Amino acid sequence: MIVIDHLTKRFGKQTVLNNVSLEFRPGTVTAVIGPNGSGKSTLMKCILGLVKPTEGSVVINGRNALTDVRCHADVGYMAQIARYPDNLRASEVIDMVKGLRERTADVSDTLINAFDLKPHLNKPMRTLSGGTRQKVGAIIALMFSPHSLLLDEPTAGLDPVASQQMKDQIEAAKSRGASVIITSHIVAEIEELADRAVFLHEGMVIHEGSVSSVREQLEVLR
Amino acid sequence: MMRLLKYVLRDISRGRWVLLYFLFFFAITEGLLFFTAGEAKTIVGLMNVVFLLIPLASIMFGTLHLHNSRDFIELILTQPVRRSTVFFSLYLGVSLPFVCSFLLGVGIPALIHAAAFSPAIITLLLTGAALTFVFTSIAFYVGIVINDKAAGMGLAFILWLFFTVIYDGALLAITVMFQDYPMEQPTIAMVLLNPIDLARIAVMLTVDYAALMGYTGAVIQKFFGSGLGLMLSVTSLLLWIAIPFGIGLKSFNNKDW
Amino acid sequence: MRLTYMKPTMIIAVMLIASAGTANAETITVSKNGRFTSVRQAVTSSQRGDVVYVEAGVFIESNIVIRHPLELRGRKGAVIDGSNTPGTLITVKSDSVLISDLELRNVAISYVDDNAAIKIVNSKHCEVLRCRIFNGFFAIYLSNSQQCRIADNYLKADKGLESNSGNGIHCWTSKDVYVSGNIIDGHRDGIYFEFMNRGTVIGNTSRNNLRYGLHFMFSDSCTYSRNKFIQNGAGVAVMFTHYVQITDNTFSDNWGPTSYGLLLKEISDSHLRGNLFDGNTIAIHGEGAARILLEHNVFRNNGYALRILGNCFETTVRDNTFEGNTFDVTTNSVNSQNTFINNYWSSYSGYDLNKDGFGDVPFHPVRLYSLLVEQVPSSVILMHTPFVNILDLAERVLPTVTPETLVDSKPRMSAP
Q1: Across the interface, do B172 and C372 touch by the CB < 8 Å criterion?
Q2: Dihedral of CA A66/A68/A70/A74: which sign?
Q3: What is the residue extent of each domain of chain B?
Q4: Coil/strand/helix, residue A50
Q5: Tens digit of pLDDT for each residue in B51-60?
Q6: Distance from C-alpha of A78 to C-alpha of A72, rounded to nearest angstrom
Q7: CB contact A214 to B (< 8 Å)
Q8: Cα(C26)–Cα(C51) distance, rounded to whole angstroms?
Q9: Which residues have CB under 8 Å from B189's CB, separation 6+?
Q10: Would A65 be classed as within a structural domain?
Q11: ipTM over 0.90 threshold
Q12: E-state strands within C187-249
């Protein structure tokens, strides 16, 4: 459960998020959509603690996400572009994250098999293709079976097989009761995965509701 | 902190820059010790190279590395880790491999040729290590505050130029301008404020170059040989590490990624 | 090498024989259980031309005064020790006295009298040979004496303070003194000449002395050859003197804020040839030096090789080697009235197109920075900074400030 309350973020004079209040409920996949510069990634980063909001609050599972880094222990995040230390092996990056969370990840082996990463585990990250690095990102986001899952363009860069695997994983997360937030440009994908959509424009929530209702709204805007 | 530091250290140590850095210092030290006999001259020659290269390499690599690690830093920050822990780990992870490869690069040939470290070599190693920490601190601050990579690298280079050349030019201009006044105390104060000058004077004093410097040399020797001088020098170097590190850490903690 | 020592030695030997020529010379022996148990007793009882032998043993005494020609010789292990007795050990007040093979030690330190191990006063044709003097205060002291020879002695003092140390070989108002093959260590000045004429100093080693290895003033027409001056507090000083020959000496490791390899102050018409200057703070400091010829010397690893002040003139510097010095030449003046030619400079970067062994581009040995240091002493703090190196490089490419006349117009491509 992620609760965002009156969230505002200004960079200097520019207001990127304007008084955004949202709830992301367990067992729900929410798509955050909107044109470039609408504040999608800033919203994600506020939830993740990467951007400090000017006003408002973010509460993840009852913990204040702005002050308590422990709440990240139950959040999985997959970035749009994945870059890792050049000279670490894929397996080391995964081990490092496990170390940081101070826990083992029971499903990591299953995920490694599912994404077919095994042949690449011992290669340095710099030698891996963008798609393979993306798979590492997916495994890191998913391996602790978190109750909050934030995925920035989750299927971009993945091959069709991995892409389908990713979708299956999202479904699985949803069915075990995770709050999932995704951003995507692919309408079909949103319709396939999301239960609910939030449309952002110039830092404000223009519309919030079922995917189809947001789509209708979009048609109107055009 | 070790959980993260371990991996940063592994990443940096496996990189080719640390190896090149080691090989460079090894070759230059071995070359100087092999071809020259006079120890003081060797040390001064080595010092010229070391105090030019360490600040340059530390500030450029530090800034570059921080820029290149942005995505990785974002990933780490979404984990349940405090930001200051991340900053400390990155800082030590970058500076320690470079300090080690400098210490080994200069230290191994020195040991081969002398069997024991002279006070001059020890001073050179210590000040070189200190300068690595100083300029990595500055580099991290630049890397955090300047978001644009090219602009960050540019500023890093200008800062290096400032500490290596421009500052000394200004110092010279001031001593010439005020040559009718006793300038020993003000110049000592200015030396204390520039970590590279401070390191240079420290090494030159251990090889007794003060003798070359006439009256000024005697004043410098007296000051830096005293307990107060030593304390102020060490304090100055530590502050040069701590202050950029401190403001870098503060910026890091408040930064929007 | 030894042959060159012979000539003056023989002259003095002949002079000695001529003046000492007595027929019935006796041999007197000083020993612990013989007729004479003290050297003073024996010397007092001796006749003109006698030979006094001192047998092995430590004789605690001082104030031995020799008033007639005599030979005072030590057997192996003969020691005269001045412990707890004031005054000079042996005073020579007669011509033609020879002192040899004695060990002399522990001369009383005095702040009033120049106590010595051997003092030669107002005498001619005296010799001090192969003596070993430990803590002699003034070890060998000559005043107003002529045609004397001090050779192959070993003089060692525990380095104390300048105020309670004396000189190793101290000569003043004397003529034709020949000092050779001595080793002098730990005194105030190793060799000290004042108002000496035609002194010759050859093959000595003067090291670890508190002040100067060799210090001479108002001593014209002296020759210094093949000596080694090493690690002396202030190096060697030659002052207020004319017609000096300084050849084939080594000046090395005289390092310190007030140390020189060789200080030339108010010197004229002198010749320096074939000397090696290695590892000195300032190899040669010239102040008011005129008409000096400096040739075939080697300056290596010095702080300043040649510091030649504006009041030096008509000095010629040629065929020398300058290698690895921090500063090759410095001066405090923009005008130079001295000539530099055909020297080898390791910092010369010119070329030799016609392959005649000489560079085609003149060399300016004065660095801009060294000139700056002379004028603004506190700028010395920037020594070895990249800024200063850039400054010097710029000046070398485009000379604007450094003295135009101080130039080696035909520098060598390799050491002569």
Answers
A1: yes
A2: negative
A3: 2-254
A4: coil
A5: 999 999 999 9
A6: 13
A7: no
A8: 6
A9: none
A10: yes
A11: no
A12: 191-197, 200-202, 205-207, 212-217, 223-225, 228-230, 235-242, 245-247
